[in-house]
Design goal:
Elements: H1 10-40, E1 46-52, E2 60-64, E3 67-73, E4 82-84, E5 87-96, E6 102-110, E7 115-122, E8 130-137, E9 146-154, E10 161-167, E11 179-182, E12 187-194, E13 197-204, E14 212-213, E15 217-218, E16 224-231, E17 240-248
Parallel strand pairs: 1-7, 9-16
Antiparallel strand pairs: 1-4, 2-3, 2-5, 5-6, 7-8, 9-12, 10-11, 10-13, 13-14, 13-15, 16-17
Length: 252
């Protein structure tokens, strides 16, 4: 092979070297730009779970975007998150486990990079009595040294409630409710408070007779949680039971 640089001057060889360097730099820039364009078009998924707060629904299966997100669940169930494609009109189908009868067929918006709950309740207005709401859940942990709780009151027989997060050693008499007069069907949260060991106490709105007293909860900071409040089915007297789910932060 003939050496194309033979007989060339030092100046021409320097110019050639500069051209080679420039071409390599241009190629590298093109590759970087291509990679950036690929990242820019990437769509983050949506994390989705199911909260079953229906008193009248039988055991159910829940499909979202054709994916079985929850199987054979019942009242008070809060499922783990599943990963789905972000969609403005994501189809949601809720069927009875027995007989595979469709109870609810609807759709909802699932945002990219967000966390959502498919929230099934009884509203009494629709022909079948069910209502599906898409909740947006907190996806980042609470601020350092603080915990953030959201409360969903679905205790229809019990009615409006006050909610206390009482530090160790305190009593209802010297405590201030974190949430007051939370009506049936309402949501309160996310409410941030200083992390410590607390006891959740729920009373009828404006009263100091507890419906529910949780065992002490040790909060270290960063917790983001959802609390579902429902009427207990174990007694005819007004009382509530509580279901708690971890949205973000520590899992203790």
């Amino acid at each position: 092979m003939q050496d194309s640089t033979r007989g060339s001057t030092p100046g021409s060889r320097l110019a050639l070297a500069r051209l080679v360097v420039a071409a390599a730099a241009a190629l590298a820039a093109a590759l970087v730009l291509s990679a950036c364009q690929t990242v820019a078009t990437y769509t983050q998924p949506s994390l989705v779970r199911v909260i079953d707060a229906s008193y009248i629904a039988p055991a159910i299966d829940v499909q979202v975007e054709g994916q079985l997100l929850a199987s054979n669940i019942g009242q008070g169930t809060i499922t783990p998150y599943g990963t789905l494609t972000a969609e403005t009109t994501a189809p949601i189908v809720i069927t009875a486990v027995t007989g595979n009868v469709a109870l609810v067929t609807t759709s909802g918006t699932l945002l990219a990079g967000h966390q959502h709950s498919v929230f099934l309740t009884d509203n009494g207005a629709a022909p079948n009595g069910y209502l599906v709401t898409i909740l947006e859940d907190q996806q980042v942990q609470a601020a350092q040294g603080h915990s953030a709780f959201r409360f969903l009151n679905q205790a229809a027989k019990t009615g409006a409630v006050d909610i206390y997060m009482m530090p160790a050693g305190s009593t209802l008499a010297n405590s201030i409710p974190l949430v007051t007069n939370l009506s049936v069907g309402a949501t309160a949260g996310y409410i941030s408070f200083t992390s410590q060991t607390v006891t959740m106490v729920i009373t009828p709105a404006g009263q100091t007779t507890p419906f529910f007293a949780f065992t002490p909860i040790t909060l270290t900071g960063g917790e983001a949680r959802t609390v579902l409040i429902m009427d207990t089915q174990l007694t005819s007297n007004p009382a509530v039971e509580v279901f708690t789910a971890i949205d973000a932060g520590p899992t203790n």
